[in-house]
Amino acid sequence: MMEFSGPVWRILFLSQISAPLVPAQAPEGRFHYSGQIALYASLSAEGAGVAIRRYVSPNDPPRILQRAEVSGASLIDLRGQHKASMVWQDIHKEHGFSPTWRFSDQARAKHADGLIYSSRTRPELSHIVLFNLSPAIICAHAQATPWEPSYFQP
Predict the structure, then answer these.
(1) Are 48 and 9 contacting, i.e. CB atoms less than 8 angstroms apart?
(2) Taking all residues of the chain, what is their mean pLDDT, rounded to a whole number?
(3) Which stretches of 24-150 are DSSP H helices?
């Protein structure tokens, strides 16, 4: 386990500006399933754009880039482990589970605050998922900035 402190970024809908640390709303994700708390973020603004790319479409409502600060989080380091960064959605759709859940189950069993892992498409970028959303672990910066994906701009 490693201790992590530093800035992280999330891309949210503008409608979420008053709740910038709301956990994932989808019942299932890369490192959570129904009933589990997970807040996904990236170690850079660029990484946040890469992470959300799969979920963005041209007609989406406006989005914002929100910075937050993580302090003293105990994370399991999965960077460089391909199985943690695999496309999980197709496996989940076919089998009803994701093999990536075993990483988060193991981390939760060890009382880790979360995981740090490599971007699937840009391995030099890293993301985190937090299971512990205590204000002692993460707090949002007051100011968010508008965000538009560059891949939809003319």
Answers:
(1) yes
(2) 91
(3) 45-52, 82-85, 89-95, 101-109
Q: How many residues does the chain have?
A: 154
Give the residue from 150, 119, 129, 138 showing the smallest Cα distance to 20: 138
Residue 94 domain boundaries: 2-152
How far apart (Å, rounded) are the C-alpha atoms in residues 112 and 74? 5
What residues does 42 pair with on adjacent strands?
A: 9, 127
Reported as a single tens digit per residue, the pLDDT across 66-109 is 999 999 999 999 999 988 888 777 878 888 788 889 999 999 99
Q: How many domains does the chain have?
A: 1
Question: Distance between CA 102 and CA 49 in Å, rounded?
Answer: 26
